[in-house]
TrEMBL record:
<dbReference type="GO" id="GO:0006508">
    <property type="term" value="P:proteolysis"/>
</dbReference>
<keyword id="KW-0788">Thiol protease</keyword>
<dbReference type="InterPro" id="IPR051794">
    <property type="entry name" value="PG_Endopeptidase_C40"/>
</dbReference>
<dbReference type="InterPro" id="IPR023346">
    <property type="entry name" value="Lysozyme-like_dom_sf"/>
</dbReference>
<dbReference type="GO" id="GO:0008234">
    <property type="term" value="F:cysteine-type peptidase activity"/>
</dbReference>
<keyword id="KW-0812">Transmembrane</keyword>
<protein>
    <submittedName>
        <fullName>Bifunctional lytic transglycosylase/C40 family peptidase</fullName>
    </submittedName>
</protein>
<dbReference type="InterPro" id="IPR000064">
    <property type="entry name" value="NLP_P60_dom"/>
</dbReference>
<dbReference type="InterPro" id="IPR008258">
    <property type="entry name" value="Transglycosylase_SLT_dom_1"/>
</dbReference>
<keyword id="KW-0645">Protease</keyword>
<dbReference type="InterPro" id="IPR038765">
    <property type="entry name" value="Papain-like_cys_pep_sf"/>
</dbReference>
<dbReference type="Pfam" id="PF01464">
    <property type="entry name" value="SLT"/>
</dbReference>
<keyword id="KW-0378">Hydrolase</keyword>
<feature type="domain" description="NlpC/P60">
    <location>
        <begin position="199"/>
        <end position="330"/>
    </location>
</feature>
<dbReference type="Pfam" id="PF00877">
    <property type="entry name" value="NLPC_P60"/>
</dbReference>
<keyword id="KW-1133">Transmembrane helix</keyword>
<feature type="transmembrane region" description="Helical">
    <location>
        <begin position="6"/>
        <end position="32"/>
    </location>
</feature>
Length: 335
């Protein structure tokens, strides 16, 4: 079903609440019709607030170290490895924001800030080291056919020798999934240079949320029978996209990375819209709703309130995400 046909089905469903949605969204989706054909573009730079402010300049600088990487790709790796946690430590002894194991750090760790110390726990050293390690791997496999970035990521996961042996990304499911995961996840950290394609599942997600209008908010609510079908903000958005076959993380700040980020001027119905008291850090996001057009969203706002329409143009508006199935699948299970 096309995006436009999906909206015809939704509009035909009727009800007072849905009539309000129709007024808001129909014009927006007519404008968006030509986008469904696949207009898109290559993204460069970092999306606003996608990387915590403390690390943004490092990621931007070192993400341009060689042609095989870019800032968004480096950010995706750091998020996948540690969720930008400089104190992260895995059971396999991987350490710090970039999750180096001791042997790899001994061989590839840099003194990124020039303080005379190579400290795996210091992002000023670990982030430059991660970029440098990526570029070293890219250099090892530079003569291998295929996409240099895919070959670099495959080398990171399976070893450069495997990429050389197979003449490209090895036929290992784990490695192929890693390459796809990081390249997909990088889209959620990149600032798009052209319009972002609309989500085909948007109509269904809004239809689900619209049916919940008037439902009393519940902190921690995910809509279960035991909870009386009540939701909090991210529980509602999670359930709305679950209804169309997309599994989102449970909390709002993790949902932000489930796809690329359209600008305010490019919002389309179905986009998730986010709010924060710290507009420089996506990890500080505290609220999310589903955009329906015309400057409004459906959201579960707070204790004592009901699921309703609210305006999005407030001082704490952070940004938006156009949810994609691949983007949601690429998210780590824990960050």
């Amino acid at each position: 079903m096309t995006v436009r046909k999906a909206w015809i089905v939704v509009i035909a469903a009727g009800s007072a609440g849905l009539a309000f949605v129709m007024v808001l969204v129909v014009g927006v989706y007519l404008v968006a019709g030509n986008l469904a054909a696949g207009i898109g573009g290559k993204s460069v730079g970092l999306a606003k607030g996608a990387v915590p402010a403390a690390y943004q300049s490092l990621v931007q600088k070192w993400g341009n170290l060689c042609e095989a990487i870019n800032p968004a790709l480096l950010a995706a790796q750091l998020y996948q490895e540690s969720g930008f946690n400089p104190k992260a430590q895995s059971p396999a002894a991987a350490q710090g924001i970039a999750q180096f194991i001791p042997g790899t750090w001994a061989a590839h760790g840099l003194d990124g800030d020039g303080d005379g110390d190579r400290d795996v726990w210091d992002p000023n050293d670990a982030i430059p080291s991660a970029a440098s390690y990526d570029c070293s791997l890219a250099k090892y496999v530079k003569d291998v056919p295929g996409d240099p970035t895919a070959n670099m990521l495959a080398s990171y996961n399976a070893g450069a020798y495997a990429v050389i042996k197979y003449g490209g990304v090895p036929p290992y499911k784990e490695t192929q999934n890693y390459v796809k995961t990081i390249t997909t996840l990088s889209e959620s950290f990149a600032a798009p240079t052209t319009r972002v394609d609309p989500s085909e599942q948007a109509a269904g997600a809004i239809a689900y949320a619209q049916k919940k209008l008037g439902t009393l908010y519940l902190w921690g609510g995910t809509g279960t029978a035991e909870q009386g079908g009540r939701f909090d903000c991210s529980g509602l958005t999670q359930a709305a996209y679950e209804s169309v076959g997309i599994t989102l993380p449970r909390v709002a700040n993790d949902q932000y990375n489930a796809g690329p980020h359209p600008s305010r001027e490019e919002l389309l119905p179905g986009d998730l819209v986010f709010f924060s008291d710290d507009l420089t850090n996506s990890r500080a996001i505290r609220h999310v709703g589903i955009y329906v057009g015309g400057g409004y969203m459906i959201d579960a706002p707070r204790t004592g309130a009901v699921i309703r329409f609210d305006p999005i143009d407030t001082p704490d508006y952070f940004g938006a995400t156009r949810v994609t199935e691949d983007g949601a699948k690429a998210l780590p299970t824990a960050v």
